[in-house]
Amino acid sequence: MTTPLSRLLAALERFHAAHPWDHNAHYHPWIMRQLPKRFGTALDIGSGGGELARLLGTRAGAVRGLDADPAIVGRARALTASAAPVAFTVGDALTDIPSGSYDVITCVAALHHLPFSDALAVFRRHLAPGGTLVVVGLAHAQSTGDRLLGAAAVPLNVAMALIKNRGRRSARPVSMTAPTRPAMMSFADIAGEARQVLPGARLRRRVLWRYTLVWQQN
Q1: Which strands make up the sheet holding 60-67, listed edge to edge?
Q2: Is 0.85 topped by the overall pTM?
């Protein structure tokens, strides 16, 4: 049996299919504002098609993108100029991070696929002194505030899709071929666990069904 909510969600899904845009890339300029003008090394966890890794490469001496999906890593390599200081590796974010420490670590829409606290601890170990970790993640809507923010995102999502597709044929974002899964942790649980692993971490709920985390290594 269909409900008004299920019909609305189905209509939004059809709208987004006709007017695609990358919700994660929307936060890339914000991510760059959290980082120094220049830095030595960067690691992008869950690098996907490589858009953020290539953007980091405009400021970094060397960037490594890591993703578990071989097909999308191949696509990222094909889209990256040979002269760019960016390389992509297929691997697990908990066990296959290339050795060494990084001045910047980013993780966009990938942390909910990993054991949360374990992943943050791994990121912390690989972050250089003074380095910056930036996460854009997904949380499970649980509180009234979560649901209100999600409802407010619906008209904004429609407006953004119309703006980004206005006057041009929109290229579809590079799609993952590996299985995806929804976020299971609430924002409250995420904030509580994050601050145990990363004391002083700054977390905020965001529109468009995301939250952000920023932390600096001492």
Answers
A1: 86-90, 60-67, 39-45, 102-108, 127-137, 210-216, 202-206
A2: no
23: left (phi over 0), alpha (psi -120 to 50) or beta: alpha
Burial of 67-80, coded b for 16+ CB within 10 Å and e otherwise, reads bbbeebbebbeeeb
CA 118/CA 157 separation, integer angstroms: 32
End-to-end CA distance of the chain: 54
Question: Which residues, other chains included, contact 69 with Cβ-Cβ below 8 Å and sequence gap of 6+?
Answer: 48, 90, 176, 177, 178
What whole-number distance in Å separates Cα of residue 121 and Cα of residue 50?
A: 24
Average pLDDT (2-14) is 63
What tens digit of pLDDT does each residue of 93-133 get? 999 998 899 999 999 999 999 999 999 999 999 999 999 99
66: number of CA atoms within 13 Å, CB side? 20
Checking if the pLDDT of 16 tops 60, the result is no
Per the rule left: phi > 0, alpha: psi between -120 and 50, beta: everything else, 29 is: alpha
Domains recognised in the chain with CATH numbers: 1-218 (3.40.50.150)
Instruction: Count CB atoms within 10 A of the CB of residue 15.
Output: 14
Q: Does 84 or 19 have the greater pLDDT score?
A: 84
Question: What type of residue sits at position 180?
Answer: T
Q: What sign results for the dihedral spanned by CA atoms 76, 78, 79, 83?
A: positive
36 phi, psi to nearest 5 deg: -65, 160
